[in-house]
Amino acid sequence: MSPKEAARRRWARVAWAYGLLLAFGVFFVGPFLMGFLASLKTNPLEWPFNLGFAQVSPKNWVAAWRLGREGAGDPWLGGMRPGREVALEVAYFWPEATPPELQAVIPRRRPGAGMGAVFESPYAADYVQLFGPDLLETRPFRLGEAEGYLYRYRLQIAYQGEGPYLERVPLDLEAPRGALLVAATLDPIRFERRGRVASWDNVVPGLLGYTFHNYVRAFRETRSLETGQSLFLRWTLNSFLIAFLKVTTTLVFASMAGYALARLRFPGKEALFLFMLFSMMVPVQVTFISNYLVLRDGIFGLSRLFGVETLLNTYTGLILSGLVGAGAVFIMKQFFESIPKEVEEAALIDGATPFQTLFRVVLPMATPALGAVAILTFQGAWNEFFWPFIVLTTPREIYTLPLGLLAFRNAYGQVGDWGLILAGGFLSMIPILILFAVFQRYFVEGVSVGAVKE
Amino acid sequence: MRLNARTLEGLYALLLLLPFLFTLGVFFLYAFLRAVYFSFTDYDLFSPPQFVGLANYLRLLEDPLFLRALWHTLAYSLVVTVLQTFFALLLATALNQPLRGITAFRTVYYLPSVVSTAAASLLLLWLFQRTGLVNQGLSLLLAYLPHLLALALIFALVQGGQVLWERRRGAPTGFWDPALALISLPLALLGVYALGFLGLVGPREVRVEIPWLPTTATFLGIPYPLWAIILMNTYTTIPTFMVLFLAGLKGIPKTLYEAAALDGATPWTMFRRITVPLLRPVLFLVITLGLIGTLQLFDQVLFVGGSGGAPLEATVTLAYYVYGNVFPSGATPRVGLASAAALFLAGLTLLVVLLQRRLGVSERGWG
Questions:
Q1: Is B212 exposed, middle or buried, given 0-12, 13-18 or 19+ CB atoms closer than 10 A?
Q2: Chain A residue with the nearest C-alpha to that of B250
């Protein structure tokens, strides 16, 4: 084989390898990407899946921004405030020389189904006035094969007098059969009655309100029945709080236990280690009944210690039952065993107690292991479902994010509001994805630290 | 009084271990023993437990829902473990190359396994709707099947021709020679495009509408909703195990491959004779972790079930069965029965681990 031939083959091999890598990449990220795109759509179950929908058009972004600013002075989330006025232009194709009869109406439409349907928000129809549609322009137009005219209309929506801030102003525009909407300042969110009615859920959406329609809804519609505050935000904060507490307790207690198991001599050490391994293999479903009862009734006055009747539905109970996991202890033990003994012997000669040795000498050296444990614990706590599902049942305000997602799924699955369900799912992924982007090395290596290192 | 050094060290160890011993003692040991005790009693979470002997275990074997849950758990566990181990190994081998930017790819591949089961379940629900992406993808695949077949055919012809030509010139060329394939593939694509342009192959009208979730229909004895969960979970766990395999692959000395290459071993022989035997500890770990994890399937059952989702009989697993008996809707809790089922699950898990050790897949991975 000539050197030239060999080089050619090497290049071809590299090209194949990258091609394969790329294909796998598409495979692993594709569904998430498609799901994310679908979560922006009005109908995520559209067949066929269309990539050129209204929410991804820059023209609509600009219009949504402008309308939001004109309606409420808020270009991001939009809305309508008293004394403001917005204008919307639409263009219809109509084959005849007389202009089509357009009927515009601001419907009294509820903002959503499921949890959102419970709340009484003010109807825009009660406060704003609609002027028009006024014909602006007529000109001959060709649409494909058909000859006809293009009619441009202007709609004016004014909020006169006093009144509350309106989150949204819906609009329905009905045209006779045969008239086609060819352009609009802001594309309608859907067509109803075989395309005759163009429908906007909000003509003053703001940029986020238009493109991330479902995400804004997730925050606005999922509210507490009692206080009216956004549940979704609460769930996210709860998840953060619990994960933070869990990481803290785990880091401290796992390094303590791991150090004792790795370095100190005491009777029953081997047995304890084996027992620990055994505990890692037994499914939660075996122990949760007793743990539930321990939290409910207490054991040896455990819950009395905290001055409450029961530890169910409290974070104290949740944290107490998961102070430190056997897996974290295992990782720390493995790591401490890999540190040279001489370091601690020096500390010992200087008269340090094991506590001092651990916290002053060994732990500062253990940052990689602590990082891995922190990340793995955070990920575990953030994603944990079964045990919080048992412990935290009422009220909805104390849920963690995964439990909230189940409430979401149950509230909106029945009405098939997949946009909202997907939006909730993706919102819950954001923190963990950010964390992953920053600490991905620890994520990827953390798994192997605990498992393969000997 | 002065304590001797031995006792002092023991006391320190006890102090350091105290929080861990508390968690392990109260929330594992005590709980485990109580589960054993409950499994021999009739208990409803409120009135005191009544001893009933082995009755719960016998009742389990007569409960059709339990048998179904058992079958689902076993089938799910087996299928997912096999699939994820196989594909993770395949991917790791493909990725274990000195290519530039490989870490970026590894990171991207790892992404799906970072996501919570709850969020993944929501995505699963959407993907497997009747007009969801999975059905659309299948439709697309079937619609363009003629194109794909034509592509494969033209590729084989062109590649075969090239290989024959090279061989006649005296070069030892295999059928999958990458350099030649790089020429054949664009030619094949061009050929298919030309055929389509001439109208010889055209897309067909296909609309696959498999009702994946609201059904009890089965395929190979496994209900469709469970298949949906299988596909989704395999997809999210492959990357985790791939990372484990990659760590293992790094530990295999390169010299072994070089020596084998000198002896004229094919990549396949190297894979079978070097990679797999030396990866045994990791393989053991991956299979064990996979089995333990899959035996506890619960979250997805809850998410996929419920309104507008899969019926319970199609997705119930042992873990769900246990939960469902402790907190049944509109009935008294059957804690004894649930405990017996839970112990059955634990026994199954331990059996799997022991069996693996017996079968001689080395245990070194456990450290």
A1: buried
A2: A452
| Cβ separation A294–B345 shorter than 8 A | no
Residues 378-397 of A with CB under 8 A from B: 379, 382-383, 385-386, 389
CA atoms within 13 A on the CB side of B343: 19
Amino acid at B177: D
> Could you list the mean pLDDT of each consecutive 10-residue stretch along chain B, which spans 367 residues?
78 91 92 94 88 91 94 94 92 81 81 88 91 91 91 92 85 76 88 87 84 88 92 89 84 85 83 84 85 90 84 91 91 92 93 77 41
Chain B hits for A407, CB-CB cut-off 8 Å, are: none
Q: Does B351 touch chain A (CB under 8 A)?
A: no
Supply the ipTM of this predicted assembly: 0.88
B99 contact residues in A (CB cutoff 8 A): 14, 17-18, 21
Q: Say how far apart CA B184 and CA B178 lie, in whole Å.
A: 10
B305 vs A442: CA distance, rounded Å: 35
Q: CA geometry: angle at A12 spanning A10 and A15, to 5°?
A: 110
* Helical ranges in A212-283 per DSSP H: 213-221, 231-263, 269-281
Q: Considering only CA atoms, which of A426, A423, A443 is closest in space to residue A221?
A: A423
Radius of gyration (Cα) for chain A, nearest Å?
Answer: 31
**Per-residue pLDDT, B365:** 38
Residue B144 in contact with partner chain A when CB distance is under 8 A: no
Phi, psi of A223, deg, nearest 5? -125, 160
* A402 in Cβ contact with B118 (< 8 Å): yes
pLDDT, position B360: 53
Alpha carbon separation from B135 to A28, A110, B141 (Å, rounded): 18, 32, 10
Contacts 24+ apart (CB under 8 A), B213-222: B213/B125, B213/B128, B213/B129, B213/B304, B213/B308, B213/B309, B213/B310, B214/B308, B214/B309, B214/B310, B214/B311, B215/B310, B215/B311, B215/B314, B216/B311, B216/B313, B216/B314, B221/B71, B221/B75, B222/B72, B222/B75, B222/B76, B222/B79
Give the Cα separation of A429 and A417 in Å (integer). Answer: 19
Interchain proximity B114–A46, CB inside 8 Å: no
Cα–Cα distance, B225 to B314 (Å, whole number): 7
B258 is written with which tokens? 């070089």
Three-class DSSP category at A181? strand
pLDDT at A453 (0 to 100): 39
What residue ranges of chain A have pLDDT lower than 70? 1, 111-119, 301-305, 445-454
pLDDT at residue number A446: 62
Write the CB contacts of A110 (distance below 8 Å, at least 6 apart in sequence).
A116, A117
* Cα angle: A186, vertex A191, A193; to 5 degrees: 150
pLDDT of residue A207: 92
